[in-house]
Specification:
Blueprint: E1 3-12, E2 15-24, E3 32-36, H1 44-55, E4 59-63, H2 87-100, H3 103-119, E5 128-133, H4 135-146, E6 151-157, E7 180-188, H5 194-206, E8 211-220, H6 233-250
Parallel strand pairs: 3-4, 3-5, 5-6, 6-7, 7-8
Antiparallel strand pairs: 1-2, 2-4
Helix pairs in contact: 3-4
Protein name: Hydrolase
InterPro entries: AB_hydrolase_fold (IPR029058), Dienelactn_hydro (IPR002925), Dienelactone_hydrolase-like (IPR051049)
GO molecular function: hydrolase activity
């Protein structure tokens, strides 16, 4: 299927979010999917991921979660991001990440993205899907809890801090979720240790959420991101299978 990719601007309560849009180039509306970025932001690799999902029959939006600071890219990234040697990049992006993941901010942004979907002739009426990576997994779960009437499928890959002791931890809102949820955890991820993985699954089960949680052995935080040194080809292939299985089941194209 031929895919068209463009850059779009989305009005939000806090300004204008730039985003990448990928969709089948057939002039017809397709189910919408929000793809939430990892910590390194909107860039060519995420655009390629969106294109791959669009090839399966979806209209995919990848917003710049850091738009309050400016349009992407906000920092210069090397062709291959060495995760162990990017303290300067983290220092620039860290405060933006904290802002983007605040519950009220995440909910307002999701409001804007869903409103944009509603007004687009490229998006089929009805529920949407969400997939997120690292920071994006956090945002994806926030969207599933803040907009339960809109999200039919939510996939969260190598997310961190999803079930902490904080009073605003995302897992505490599990009871609001109506979507089917998939978690692909990395077993070498200090941001999501076994205790948090267990706590998250317990919260989902107690809330009656249709979910599946898998721990990818040998995978580190960021294993799906092919432009970083944390990339794991085996884990990435497994992630694509899990994502498309979820979309096909809960949000058929």
């Amino acid at each position: 299927m031929t895919v068209r990719g463009t850059l779009v601007d989305i009005p939000t309560a806090d300004g204008t979010a730039d985003a990448y849009l990928a969709h089948p180039d057939d002039g017809r509306p397709h189910p919408g999917v929000l793809l939430y970025q990892d910590a390194f932001g909107l860039r060519p690799h995420l655009q390629a991921m969106a294109d791959r999902i669009a090839e399966a029959g979806y209209t995919v939006l990848v917003p710049n979660a850091y738009y309050r600071k400016g349009r992407a890219p906000l920092v210069e990234l090397p062709e291959l991001i060495d995760v162990e040697q990017c303290a300067e990049i983290y220092a620039q992006l860290g405060p933006l990440l904290v802002t983007a993941t605040a519950p009220d901010v995440a909910a307002r942004d999701a409001d804007a993205y869903l409103a944009w979907f509603d007004g687009s002739p490229l998006v089929k009426d009805g529920p949407i899907g969400v997939t997120g990576y690292c920071l994006g997994a956090f945002l994806g779960l926030r969207t599933a809890t803040s907009h339960p009437d809109r999200v039919a499928a939510a996939a969260c890959f190598h997310g961190g801090h999803l079930a902490t002791d904080r009073p605003d931890s995302p897992h505490l809102d599990a009871r609001r979720i109506t979507a089917e949820v998939y978690f692909g955890h990395a077993d070498r991820d200090d941001a999501m240790p076994p205790a948090q993985i267990a706590r998250l699954s317990e919260a989902m089960t107690a809330a009656g959420v249709r979910h599946r949680a898998e721990v990818y052995e040998g995978a580190g935080h960021g294993f799906t991101q092919a432009d970083t040194t944390r990339y794991d080809a085996v884990g990435d292939a497994r992630h694509w299978t899990a994502l498309f299985d979820l979309l096909k089941r809960s949000l058929p194209a």
